[in-house]
Amino acid sequence: TIGILVGASLVAVIPPLAFGFDWSAMFYKALTLLVVASPCALIISTPAAVLSAIGRAARRGVLFKSGASLIDLGNIRAMAFDKTGTLTQGRAQLTDVVPLNGAGEHDLLAMAAAVETGSTHPFAEAIINAARERSIDYEPAVDAVTHAGRGAAGVLPDRRRVVVGNRSMLKRENIAIDELAEETMQGFESQGKTAVLVGVDRVLGVLAITDPPRAAAVDAVAAIHHHGVKSVSMLTGDHERVAHAMAEQLGIDTVKAELLPDQKADAVDDLMRTHKSVATVGDGINDAPALASSTVGIAMGGAGTDVVLETADVVLMADDLSRLPFALQLAKRTNRIIKQNLTFALTVIALLLIGTFLGKIRLPVGVVGHEGSTLLVVLNSLRLLWQK
Ligand code: ADP
Ligand code: MG
What we know:
By secondary structure, the protein is of the alpha/beta class. The protein is built from 16 helices and 13 strands.
């Protein structure tokens, strides 16, 4: 803009002063130049497309926090998914209760539920619901704490300290996992169920939980591949066997299992090194570091915890995975339309400039060309509002 302002002034002044051209003719030419070369269409090329796309996305429940994340999403090469709550509904069901080492089934569930009252994890909900369904009375544990990616622990009114979680949770609490418990866990894991240990000093039982994938997950992964994303991976705190079983079912390329929250972020860093631009989709507190490390962080809105909604660049408000391919396609189309706009705007300016210098374009034609191209760029961008 500054270049054009200076250029037009020079055209008005230099030729008459230096070469004796006619003042009024050069003044007219300078005005024409000012009109045709003003980069209105060029400048509106990107914001018009981005705003249309953001508006379109919002109407379908996809919230982009910035235009930059929309453009970045269109250039994504790899996508990583959290498993629990993202690829699955997060409406986990408790299927089996296996008491060990002399514990009773009733007591086992009561202990687990008492400790899980402090947790918002889908598994906590499954355990509490199961206790409620069986009309098991329990008093919430005091000082219940949760460890992201591991489990929960707390002290019962009778002073017993109960630990609920995966192998790494029990290891952290120095509770040995005996052979029978390990065998029971592996049995469930080979069926694709997550085995959750309950322990007080020693393992008192194993709970099996299923968390089926969302109905939309298979199609979403296929569509994401179709839109040119080369690598789709699963990052999960769950066990290797359970993760692999689900990945195979959903057509996911690579699996990284048994990850703690910062290991999820490290896994994203690895993906960033290989693929340069990565989108990560998650729902839990434990996913926030991974979302922050990726080019575009995407949160499941309905199931998402506050921290992850805060960290994310994009929120799927409807909590629906089928919106993901839609968002990806919209982002790609936005980038295409921005390129069309820029090419068109620059071409029109170049043609008008040449025409003006050759003396073929008078001011009225210049105005029509300039305003016309700006309108066409805006109209071209508005097409994004009708993206299917
Ligand atoms: P994902 O990465 O798939 O979302 P998480 O990181 O939330 O999974 O959890 C990983 C594992 O940690 C679970 O598979 C479960 O074994 C254990 N875990 C986490 N939170 C809890 C909890 N509140 N109760 C029991 N187990 C839990
Ligand atoms: Mg999760």
